[in-house]
Amino acid sequence: MKRKRDYQALDSLDTVYGYYIQMTLGKFLVRRILQGVFVIWGVITIMFGLRAVSPGDPANLMLAEGATQALVEQVREEEGLNEPIYVQYFDYLQGMVVGDFGYSWQSNREVEAMVIERIPATIELAVAATIVAIVIAIPLGVISATRRNQPSDYGATLFSLLGISTPNFWLGLMLILILGVWAGLFPTGRRPVGFGPAVLTLAQTGSPSDIFTWLKYIALPAITLGTYFTALITRLTRSGMVDELGKPYVTASQAKGLPAVLVRYKHVLRNTMIPILTVLGLQIGTLMGGAVITETVFNWPGLGLRLIDALDARDWPLMQGIVVFIAIAFVSINIVVDALYAYLNPQVSDE
Amino acid sequence: MTEDVLRVNDLSTRFFTTEGQVNAVSNLDLRIERGEIFGIVGESGSGKSVTARSVMNLIESPGEITSGEIWYRNRDLVEDVEGDYPDAVDGEFVDLLALSDDVRRSLRGTSFSMIFQDPESSFNPTLTVGEQLAEAVEVQRRASANPRSTRARTREYSLGNYLLSTVLPSQRYVSEASHERAIELLELVGIPDPVERADEYPHEYSGGMLQRAMIAQALAGEPDLLIADEPTTALDVTIQAQILDLLDELQAETGMTILLITHNLGVIARMCDQVGVMYAGEIVERGTLEDVFDGHVHPYTEGLLGSVPDLERAGGRLQPIPGNVPSLLDHEMDDRCQFADRCPKAMEDCLEHPPEFDAPGSDHHEVRCVLTETEYDESRALPADYFGGKERPTADAYADPGTDIDESTGPGNPPRQPVDEPGGDRP
């Protein structure tokens, strides 16, 4: 199946999916997982290489300023920094395979713990941004496509153009300034409570106040992060739907007397959703690691913020831990999306 | 004993494109009797499909029905709409163009249904064939649940209903009974293993099977009028014959009326009781099959028949009609006989737009050509280069069009389309 779309990246996707038609779903998944392992290994290796070529002695970074030469020498010995580079690499790789990412140089805490404690906030933000995007973008795209060249269509098109071209950091700052500071509608600063604890409070005490607090704090970051995404999905929905509406099966469904709602949603939107879901999934993968700017602007305690901190401090183990986690998340989500695509499109999963 | 089921008067359908107004159908008159097969034949772009879609109310922006009446005989409908649309009712007839879109939509599937040219793209690729047939059945079931209330029928299945149905199976549009009926319909049109086939997707069907399924879908609502728009064009020749047989059988069984649209005169000769020949958005000649095939008057009909391969005359040259299908852009059309520039018998009289004349033959025989009443007079013939030269054949060139072909395919003249080319009209 070949669809014509005005979103260029999807064309290449289609070529790839065209190839998948030849394979069964099982084979396809095994293949994708192997590819994913290879990608993650590549990320690990590149990170190691960057650390190896970057200037500065790690032992100095680990120690307080003014440490004696003997102490530095001792740390180098303990950390294996005097070993040949390939020995260091295999040690490091071995640690990764068994899930030992080492200790943060800065805080001397375990990297795994430092990564894991930040995952919920990042996922919350990614999911919230995706929900914002879906809830706004799909109806907007549908309206736009079904009232083509009418004022509502122009409005939606303008909105998506602005959404795609507005930089995240600027939008975030403006939202904080206007809605947070001037209007006082939303709180600013670090959130006091996460989603997990808030639900726990609700379960234990029956008080939803923590949930409301959580919602108030996540609203602006989610809108900021979701705006680009919303704009993208609006455009995809519109163009996909315009494309589908011109197809003969739409006329055929109308000819058999089907209510317009069913023609529009059960038939047309369903077919439009197949490519959109693909993009949606890929974007969630991007959001997992791509929220660095938004998290920094809103001081959101997620992985992105921790990554920036790690970069500032040249805390290599932490940086590596975060980057590897993002790579794993991205690859896994991609595999799930591919499987979902095959499930939704009977022509792909057909053996 | 026969009665008209559909009378189309003075129908004009225009498309308002950026290049200008396209007169896809102009002042078209049509009468279709109950139980007959009425064929419309013409070249690609002559307005056949647009006519069909105008009846179905499937004309979409930038297209618009700008004038005319479509009278449909249905006593029940008369009773339903009398109150709301007194002007639309005349005896047993209702003028469809005077009704609202909602009422007209309620007639689709139940009064009129349609078979399309390309079965493979006329089914939704992501829903099973059984589901899509069941939808058509459901439309009919819901309509017959309120037989006397068009108003109830037009009440839309709302977005809320649809959203609910995604969570609650009981709110689904298509009922279990409709699914069962869909399987019966598949069996009716000769699909083996209908129970299993109903759960398959369109891409798992062959073209011929899908066309059968589409016929089943069109029959689901037991329509008064089945419009078949190039039903065999996309199919292999052997399959074409099977599909035509099937239509024939079903028509004999149910006595339904069929409006058959095709560019294939063979199909017309085999299937139809009455024929309308379309050219440039007009019906130029209509009448019974005998009127059109044996007693035709219009030089275009003559040309069409001359361009069909004939085994008995094998060895003789085919006689394609020289020139191209004319532009239907309003500003490029003159108020003359639209065929005059390709007509070997064009005369000065043809510079005025001809009305429909009664022609010899049956009562139904009507021809839009001055030759019906006037003999061809060479002294009044238009000079060969009257319409800008090479387009129009002289009587000699018509007999041997070989030389004229190359010249007319110059820049600005798209390659000529032979009448019996595969592929039909796409609006």
From TrEMBL, chain B:
Which stretches are annotated as coiled coil?
none
Enumerate the Gene3D superfamilies for this protein: P-loop containing nucleotide triphosphate hydrolases
State if Signal is listed as a keyword. no
Where is it localised? Cell membrane
Lineage of the organism: Archaea, Methanobacteriati, Methanobacteriota, Stenosarchaea group, Halobacteria
Pfam families annotated for this entry?
A: ABC_tran, oligo_HPY
Q: One GO CC term of this entry? A: plasma membrane
Q: InterPro entries, alphabetically?
A: AAA+_ATPase, ABC_Ni/Peptide_Import, ABC_transporter-like_ATP-bd, ABC_transporter-like_CS, Oligopep_ABC_C, P-loop_NTPase
Which keywords are on file for this protein? ATP-binding, Cell membrane, Ion transport, Membrane, Nucleotide-binding, Translocase, Transport
Task: Tell me what this protein is called.
Answer: Nickel import system ATP-binding protein NikD
Instruction: Answer whether the UniProt record assigns the keyword ATP-binding to this protein.
Output: yes
Give membrane topology per the record: Peripheral membrane protein
Which intervals of the chain are annotated as region Disordered?
Answer: 380-427
Q: What EC number(s) does this enzyme carry? A: 7.2.2.11
**Entry's Gene Ontology BP terms:** peptide transport
Catalyzed reactions per annotation: Ni(2+)(out) + ATP + H2O = Ni(2+)(in) + ADP + phosphate + H(+)
Q: Which Gene Ontology MF annotations are present? A: ABC-type nickel transporter activity; ATP binding; ATP hydrolysis activity
User: What positions does the domain ABC transporter occupy?
Assistant: 6-305
Q: Which coarse location class applies to the principal site listed for this UniProt protein?
A: membrane
Q: Give the quaternary structure.
A: The complex is composed of two ATP-binding proteins (NikD and NikE), two transmembrane proteins (NikB and NikC) and a solute-binding protein (NikA).
Concerning SUPFAM superfamilies, the annotation shows: P-loop containing nucleoside triphosphate hydrolases (SSF52540)
